[in-house]
């Protein structure tokens, strides 16, 4: 089994990578699309970092600490969660042509698209430098608003690219014959596709077959002919 290599952590950090990621194991016809979604995740993570800086400028210019505190939560929580919750499912879906992983990606990524749109709008107090917060704050501090405008544009780009990615992957999946019923079938039989379960089942079946084919001990086999002779003499 390949050793985990993601995230690529420096040697001095006493933590080990949690995932194995190698785009060479993705089929060639889907490799480019899988990489694009990975780059989209990187863009979203970078946007959360820039948003943190924008909310810091917002706070120092008199915008309050609520947005700054919430921006920390967005950064710490959504950077790893977005990777685990929607990139890993689509990575495994492209790798194994798994309808169940495709469905998991679709349902979670639809929520991601909605979140990106909300972040681009930028409701004040939600910890994001969106259009509403940036435009309103122009009257207070032009310098801070210009800094806030950068993550606002990035959130807008993420929302648009996320919608395009969702539509593209959905078209690819439906074009390959995928459906909800196929995903349900995989869910139902998923346990039997687990290699460890298959190995245990094969060992049990081989054990049962071996036991059935094993010759019986003659001493344990009842002698019906002798019993019949004794009954006739009586």
UniProtKB/TrEMBL annotation:
**TM region(s), chain numbering:** 38-60, 72-91, 103-123, 135-166
> Mind listing the UniProt keywords for this protein, alphabetically?
Cell membrane, Cytoplasmic vesicle, Endosome, Exocytosis, Golgi apparatus, Membrane, Protein transport, Synapse, Transmembrane, Transmembrane helix, Transport
- Extract one GO BP annotation from the record: exocytosis
Residues of the region (Disordered) are 207-234
This chain belongs to which protein, by name?
Secretory carrier-associated membrane protein
Which superkingdom heads the taxonomic lineage of this protein's source?
Eukaryota
Where located?
Cell membrane; Cytoplasmic vesicle, Secretory vesicle, Synaptic vesicle membrane; Golgi apparatus, trans-Golgi network membrane; Membrane
Gene Ontology CC entries for this record: plasma membrane; recycling endosome membrane; synaptic vesicle membrane; trans-Golgi network membrane
Q: Which InterPro entries match?
A: SCAMP
- One Pfam family per UniProt: SCAMP
**What kind of membrane protein is this, topologically?**
Multi-pass membrane protein
- Would you identify the family this protein belongs to, as annotated? Belongs to the SCAMP family. SCAMP5 subfamily.
Q: Where is the composition biased (Polar residues)?
A: 216-234
Record bears the keyword Cell membrane: yes
